[in-house]
Specification:
The protein has 27 helices and 26 strands. It is α+β, with helices and mostly antiparallel strands. The C terminus is likely disordered.
Length: 756
């Protein structure tokens, strides 16, 4: 077996709480060649760095009683056998939890007869001791390993000492009950955490495992069902109506409407035509598509999303790191306090050490009860379960958050800066008006960004232009061809012949034997006669920030096509929603001229517009915002936005950024997989809800500890009550954190109605 020199990653099941983390990391870190070892109990992911054989690590984990999912398999891709149907099935699947069930049965006589009815008998004491031994064996074994390895005092050590002490003073039923409650509580906590792990299983479930490969052999086309892992870049696959698209790719033939909600969270159907990009796991609509594979299965968007969500879950937020540090100090302090409680009052104040005849609690018992109170499980789990639930919810909405630290920072953001082109606007020209000399609609009004009127004459002009522009890859040409396809007129004329591009001027070609020229207004001013009214309208278009191209056929002016980088339909609503969720300063940063920038700014409702900026000036603008407002988020979509995104406290990339969603996912702090900016207020609301949940969880954990500390010192609290309270608090904070998983597909517009 080959030695791993860099990093080994395994998925471990059966480890759910703080003491499991201590046990696993302590055991693996002692193996020869291991440099570092980090285990996350929520994701179940163990990462080991160093020169160590995988088999050695796996054997050590199995000796500790943990199970290993197949090496290299994500914890989100666990087999069905690792997903419990119910709590009893979960309890029965491992020996340790089965022993807890047997212990619970054995302790029942002692609880009913001794604790409730007050009857005592040797047989009852023996069944209680048997319950203690049965349920306590795994706990005592773990305690011994911790002490033997590096004298690590974890909760298993504390519970074992407390229960042995209870046996020593004759509290047999209580000793058994404490251990059984603790064992069942740990199992129940593990069950709930297991549910949390499975909460984003839907990310995997939406990924198709098979595809229809189009294979050509001897001029015959064959359709073959194959595993997606076998597909190579360049393969052609067929996706029928209603099927999930199995791979990232490019449409070769066909057109359809695709539901991208499983990946991007978009609520609307997205039109896909030839050359359109499609994402794996999105749902095809009414048309059949032939798609050329552009990424391998392991590199497609859904696979990257799954891996990066898992990695994000393992990155600790500042709040989580603080809680972890606090818990490490808290446990030994409470142990010292417990020793002082048991020894100081009897030694210096003549207080009873053991239970007196009156039946009240002695100070040894109170010291033992404090050991139980020292359990840090609820405190340690209170933060990560909230962070992970929030990251999972964001992922299911098409938002990739790279770690809890960015959620925490986003909750504090007071100002947000936006790039204009490609972020607030579509980032590509779109046809906003067509003015043909044969137009049947009399109008002298300039074009707007709303739906413009159509007529047969204008459709014919667009069809003629698309016959020429179909040969070009220029963005203006793409916009004209796209609009012609939308109107269904792209095939009205045959493909142009003899097409020639004239750089900086336009393009010429022959359509049905007729010479056609498409060019800029400047070119027509110099070379081709055109009506004065059309000339004035073109100048007005330029002032308004529009791009104008003119069309001529055999020396006769045919009309004008007006294009613009239009504002995204969701941008004004997104800006308004951000103001409602507490982001009051919203600044648009752009390199465009002041007039065009201010027009867009007014249209979407930002609070400030900074125009004619170079990339380095955008960085300065972000720094100025930080000095004025504190935490700042930057939203952008292009390479030129990278310095500003890196300078901001949180850099947010909009879907398709920097040449592809996959690259954006790897280079930004947060990525919106769709272009819907209404995801931003949803994310802001989620980040604030996450921090509120964390604060509630930490406060609840500490208050519970403090309350039982006081009760125990006053002699009013018992060991089994302390165990019950601690396990109950652990479950409560876990369930409270998991509330953040609820309804991830809620419409973005619901946030504008005040939903949180």
């Amino acid at each position: 077996m080959e030695v791993v020199n860099k990093e080994l990653s395994l998925t471990v099941t059966g480890a759910d709480c703080a003491c499991d983390v201590s046990e696993i990391e302590g055991e693996i870190s002692t193996l020869e060649g291991v440099r570092s070892c980090v285990f996350n109990p929520i994701t179940g992911r163990l990462r080991v760095e160093g020169n160590v054989l995988p088999g050695t690590v796996i054997e050590s984990l199995q000796n500790l009683g943990y199970h290993i999912v197949e090496q290299g398999v994500s914890s989100l891709e666990q087999d069905e056998k690792h997903k419990p149907i119910g709590f009893l099935q979960f309890m029965w699947r491992s020996l340790d939890t089965r022993l807890a069930i047997f212990g619970a049965i054995l302790i029942l006589p002692g609880v009913i007869l001794s604790e409730i009815l007050g009857r005592h008998h040797l047989v009852i004491d023996l069944t209680s001791i048997a319950a203690y031994i049965t349920a306590g064996f795994p706990i005592a074994r773990s305690a011994w390993r911790s002490l033997r390895r590096n004298f690590d005092i974890n909760i298993n050590v504390l519970m074992t000492i407390a229960a042995i002490g209870a046996l020593a003073i004759g509290a047999y039923t209580e000793a058994g009950m404490v251990i059984v409650l603790f064992a069942i509580g740990e199992a129940l906590e593990g069950y709930v955490v297991d549910k949390a792990r499975a909460s984003i299983q839907s990310l995997v479930e939406v990924a198709p495992q098979r595809a229809t490969l189009i294979h050509v052999h001897e001029d015959q086309i064959h359709e073959i069902r194959v595993l997606v892992e076998t597909l190579q870049i360049g393969d052609l696959i067929l996706v029928k109506p209603g099927e999930r698209i199995p791979m990232d790719g490019r449409v070769v033939t066909g057109n359809s409407s695709v539901n991208q909600a499983p990946i991007t969270g978009e609520g609307r159907l997205v039109e896909k035509i030839e050359e359109s990009e499609v994402l794996a796991s999105t749902i095809n609509g009414e048309g059949s598509l032939r798609i050329e594979v552009t990424r391998l299965a392991k590199d497609n968007t859904i696979s990257r999303l799954i891996r990066m969500v898992e990695e994000a879950q393992e990155k600790k937020a500042p709040a989580q790191r603080f809680v972890d540090r606090f818990a490490k100090l808290y446990t030994p302090l409470v142990v010292l306090l417990a020793a002082a409680v048991a020894i100081v009052p009897p030694l210096f104040f003549n207080q009873p050490f053991l239970n007196p005849a009156s039946g009240s609690f002695g100070w040894l018992y109170r010291g033992l009860a404090l050991l139980v109170v020292a359990c840090p499980c609820a405190l340690v789990i209170s933060t990560p379960v909230s962070i992970i639930s929030a990251i999972s919810t964001a992922a299911r909405r098409g938002i990739l958050v790279k770690g809890g630290t960015y959620l925490e920072t986003l909750s504090r953001v007071e100002a947000m800066a936006f790039d204009k082109t490609g972020t607030i606007t579509e980032g590509r020209p779109s046809v906003v008006a067509v003015r043909s000399v044969n137009c049947q609609i009399a109008t002298s009004t300039p074009p707007t960004l709303d739906e413009f009127p159509r007529c047969e004459g204008c459709d014919d002009l667009l069809a003629l232009a698309s016959a020429i522009e179909a040969h070009s890859e220029h963005p203006v040409a793409d916009a004209i061809v796209h609009e012609a396809k939308k109107r269904g007129v792209e095939k009205r004329y045959p493909a142009a012949e003899g097409v020639r591009a004239h750089v900086g001027h336009g393009v010429t070609g022959r359509v049905n034997g007729t010479q056609v020229t498409i060019g800029s207004h400047n070119y027509f001013d110099r070379q081709i006669l055109h009506p004065e009214d059309d000339c004035l309208e073109a100048k007005e278009d330029a002032i308004n920030g529009f791009t104008t191209v003119m069309v001529e056929k055999d020396g006769q002016f045919q009309g004008t096509i007006v294009l613009a980088d239009v504002v995204r339909m969701t941008s004004p609503e997104a800006i308004a929603m951000l103001k409602r969720v507490g982001v009051k300063t919203l600044v648009m940063l752009t390199g465009d001229n002041r007039s065009a920038a201010e027009k867009v700014g007014a249209q979407v409702g930002v609070t400030e517009v900074l125009s004619e900026l170079m990339p380095e000036e955008k960085v300065t603008a972000v720094r100025n915002l930080q000095r004025e407002h504190g935490y700042v988020a930057m939203v952008g979509d292009g390479i030129n936005d990278t310095p500003a995104l890196a300078t901001a406290d949180v850099g947010i990339a909009v879907g398709g950024a920097w040449g592809g969603t996959a690259q954006a996912m790897e280079t930004s702090d947060i990525t919106l997989l769709s272009e819907d900016l209404r995801q931003l207020p949803f994310l802001r609301t989620l980040s604030r809800a996450t921090m509120r949940t964390i604060h509630v969880n930490v406060g609840l954990s500490l208050l519970t500890k403090l309350a039982f500390l006081i009760l125990v010192l006053l002699g009013l609290g018992t060991m089994w009550m302390a165990v019950l309270a601690d396990m109950g608090t652990s479950l409560l904070v876990t369930l409270n954190g998991m509330r953040l998983l609820q309804n991830p597909q809620k419409s973005p517009s619901s946030i504008s109605n005040g939903e949180d």
